[in-house]
Amino acid sequence: MALSKEATGPSIGAASEPSVSVPAVEEKQQDDGSKLKTFLGILRRFIGVSDLAAIRFSLPAQLLEPTPNLEYWNYLDRPETFISIGDSDAPVGRMLGTLRFWFTKDLKYVKGKPCKPYNSTLGEFFRCNWEVDDTSPPLKHPSSASQSSAASIASNKSGTNKVKISFLTEQTSHHPPVSAFFIDCPEKGIIARGYDHLSAKFTGTSIRVTPGSHNFGIFITLQKWDDEQYQLTHPAAHLGGLLRGALSVSVTDACYVTCPKTKLKVILQYLEEGWLGRTQNKVEGIIFTYDPENDTKTKIKEVSDKDVVARIEGAWTDKIYYTLGSQPFAKSSEKHLLIDLNPLFPVPKIVPPMEKQLPNESRRFWQHVTDAILSKQYARATALKQEIEERQRQKAAERKARNTEWQPRFFVGAVTPIGKPDLTKEGEEVLKGLHRDDFTLPESGELGA
Predict the structure, then answer these.
(1) Is residue 374 one of the residues assigned to a domain?
(2) In angstroms, how far is CA 254 from the centroid of its own chain?
(3) Assigned domain for 323 exists
(4) In a domain, 170, yes or no
(5) Residue 162: C-alpha distances to residues 79, 159, 323 (Å)
(6) 131 has which bridge partners?
(7) Which residues constitute the domain of residue 396?
(8) Quick one: CA torsion of 62, 67, 73, 76, rounded to 10 degrees?
(9) Compositional bias (Low complexity) at which positions (predicted)?
């Protein structure tokens, strides 16, 4: 899990060389155990601090993953599950499709190790496309057609052309660290948006990561279903294994998916560690009818069986199943596979070529730091990173002296009270350009670093 929900960084021009003069000497790389010991030593200074994420402490380059955080932090590890959310003609089917997407959105944590990307700088942005086959199989629901009909639908979908999904994210605030994102798939009539903002606390043995005050989850809108909207909230997670030298992510919290228009709600409960502390990664949940005007139920046991329309159970790192109806999951005679994560890996992004990227676009912005880390020149990488951090402080001081506030370029305002960012005209044009594979974009009038 990324320890900071920010991303890539500096406005170093692609052709300009940074001013820092550090010998390009290859240094001995630390093994994972040594890295963790160093990391733990730094963290111990922050025991008792209420919000670790707000401090934005600087780590030496050898402890960082050479990846911009705005690029790293996205929810489309498997875009084909996202574009299929609105395929069903039944509300229960669309909610099941939303859950299938939910369990694939952070596949990077299932398949890879937790890491610490670069902290984003103010005004830094990242954009990309995905192109995928629209082949997610139909999900059975109470009003489903016959299996043969469902198979026919799947067969027809497998013959379609690639579907394009476009993604834009920008660091809109530095204190607190907040980034806005927008996902768009015009062909399937589906968008998603939200703010990424984390709060983190170090307990001495693990780091507890929770959504920050500006993070209300992911908001998905199905434009072809009369703008049906789904809100998906994030659960708290723990980054453990610091003492034994093997980082791992565990989730022991509840999260919710709500759709006021269809009056369907999901409660997902991530279960605690099992016998003798062995992490089971279990999750269970229900889909039930609710009153959007009186939404008070937050625990599965609070929901009456008569309101339950489906049940969910499985391991969020393995396979997730669902049953239809209110009958207890264990007693149901027919269990359907929602998603099997075992054969799945994150899908590669299509990113603008470096010569088309702006100086404050994530990969280009951090290019010199990334090159230094990859060539094991850690002192040079750390010096370059510190230069970026100092430049950001100087820019903030200049704005304060002018009594001006930072204005994001692609999103309206740094945050909103409802957690749903709107695009500026320039933001809309960026997405239109991505749809056309046109990456031409004027440079930003003002840089945050």
Answers:
(1) yes
(2) 18
(3) no
(4) yes
(5) 11, 9, 31
(6) 164
(7) 1-247+349-449
(8) -140
(9) 143-155
Q: Is the distance from CB of 359 to CB of 443 less than 8 angstroms?
A: yes
Over the stretch 261-301, which tens digit does the pLDDT of each residue have?
A: 999 999 999 997 655 556 678 999 999 999 999 999 999 99
Q: Is residue 321 part of a domain?
A: no
Burial of 12 (0-12, 13-18, 19+ CB in 10 A): buried
Domain count, the chain: 1
If one counts every other C-beta atom within 10 angstroms of the C-beta of residue 205, the result is 12
Whether the Cβ atoms of residue 272 and residue 251 lie closer than 8 Å to each other: no
What is the distance between the alpha carbons of residues 82 and 162, in angstroms, rounded to a whole number?
A: 14
Looking at 15-29, 99-113, 223-237, 293-307, which range is the least confident one?
15-29
Task: Check if the beta carbon of residue 448 is closer than 8 Å to that of residue 392.
Answer: yes
Strands (E), 75-222: 125-132, 163-173, 178-185, 190-196, 198-202, 207-211, 218-222
CB 69 within 8 A of CB 118: yes
Query: Nearest CA to 195 among 362, 419, 359, 388?
Result: 419
- Looking at residue 421, what is its pLDDT? 97
Whole-number Å distance between alpha carbons of 15 and 434: 24
End-to-end CA distance of the chain: 26
Percent of the chain exceeding pLDDT 90 equals: 67
Q: Is the pLDDT of residue 241 over 90?
A: no
Our CA angle for 433, 439, 442, nearest 5°, is 95
